[in-house]
Amino acid sequence: MQAAGNDFVLIDELDKIFVSREEKPRFVVKVSDRHFGIGSDGVIFVQPSSEYDLSFVFYNPDGSPAEMCGNGMRCFIKYVFDHGIQKKKQIRVETKAGLIVAEPFVVDGVVEEVRVDMGSPSIKRKNIPVSGDPSGTFIDQGIEVGDAVYRVTAVGLGNPHAVLFTENLKEADVLGVGQRIRLNSGLFPKGVNVHFVQNMGDNVFGIRSYERGVEGETLACGTGICASAVALALNNLADKTKSMLFHAQGGNLRVDLEFEGEYIKKIFLTGPVEEVFRGELVF
Predict the structure, then answer these.
(1) Of 229, 239, 219, 213, nearest to 268 (Cα)?
(2) 93 domain residue, yes or no
(3) What pLDDT does 9 receive?
(4) Which of 75, 119, 244, 259 has a CA positioned 20 to 30 A from the CA of residue 265?
(5) Could you tell me which residues are beta bridge partners of residue 210?
(6) At what angle do helices 70-82 and 222-234 cross, to 10 degrees?
(7) pLDDT tens digits, residue range 155-207?
(8) Which of 161, 175, 13, 5 is nearest to 80 (CA)?
(9) For residues 228 and 241, what is the distance between their CA atoms, to the nearest angstrom?
């Protein structure tokens, strides 16, 4: 399945666990290899939940488990709705980042778009995490990369994100700068996803992302786009009362923020999703 160019292998384990927890990392690495496997930006396992409607279990292509993936969740919702597993207007999903509530938008019985309630962001260092004063924030702070200093805002959405703003997205050194910030373990003890954002005018933004676990640039990152919307609001670089449209390399996604005073209570991520193919994997 793919959502804004993020492609995922999805495996239904509702009736039977096909791959044990111990074997999942090795399995995911093999399946995600684009030359010797299927190729993916991550593998999603659909599992039952004792507390909510379903459980979303996600692994990065390097075999590491991830707390959450916005575009992966949208693929998950399309799968469970289109296959008749859950036909609710709002589907409650268990993740390592907590409860996620998603709403499928259906045309002629098929999900065309999915809107995901991503919850509230974390901006305290201890919750992202970022080293330093646990109760402090990391908003518009300088990070040295080589001879340059980049102004970065860090946001947590179950997984960590570093957002920086550029005036030339096309020429941004996403791989070089992104990798060095991602691997700055002294500042980001659990690593970080790095996003480069350019203001295109009228609450429209371009974005490119270096993803932790993929260890390279991806066509889109759903949680990263949400984190970027939060960073834009925190730095007063967007009209936070209106929808923000993000042009990722794989497609367009919309983010809406819901406020309670100055506090960002909820983030909603909306965009198209599709099933690319289905098949049988023989190991």
Answers:
(1) 229
(2) yes
(3) 98
(4) 75
(5) 194, 217
(6) 130
(7) 999 899 999 999 999 999 999 999 999 999 999 999 999 999 999 999 999 99
(8) 13
(9) 15
Indicate if 165 and 67 belong to the same structural domain.
no
As a whole number, the mean pLDDT across the chain is 96
Q: Which residues are catalytic?
A: 69, 221
Q: How many domains does the chain have?
A: 2
The SS3 assignment for 80 reads: helix
We report the CATH number of the domain holding residue 173 as 3.10.310.10
Per-residue confidence band for 282, with pLDDT thresholds at 50, 70 and 90: confident
Read off the tokens for 224. Answer: 């990263």
96 and 129, same domain (yes or no):
no
Does residue 153 lie in a domain region? yes
pLDDT confidence band for 86 (50 / 70 / 90):
very high
What sections of the chain are H helices per DSSP? 24-32, 70-82, 174-182, 222-234
Question: Which candidate, 81, 107, 88, places its Cα nearest to that of 10?
Answer: 81
Please give the residue range of the domain that contains residue 170. Answer: 125-259
Does 279 map to a domain? no
Q: Which SS3 state, helix, strand or coil, does residue 247 take?
A: strand
Residue range 45-70: average pLDDT? 96
pLDDT score at 283: 72
Residue that is last in its domain, among 120, 151, 176:
120
Tokens representing residue 79 in the block: 């799968």
Structure tokens at 146: 């080589």
Q: Please write the tens of the pLDDT for every residue from 127-136.
A: 999 999 999 9
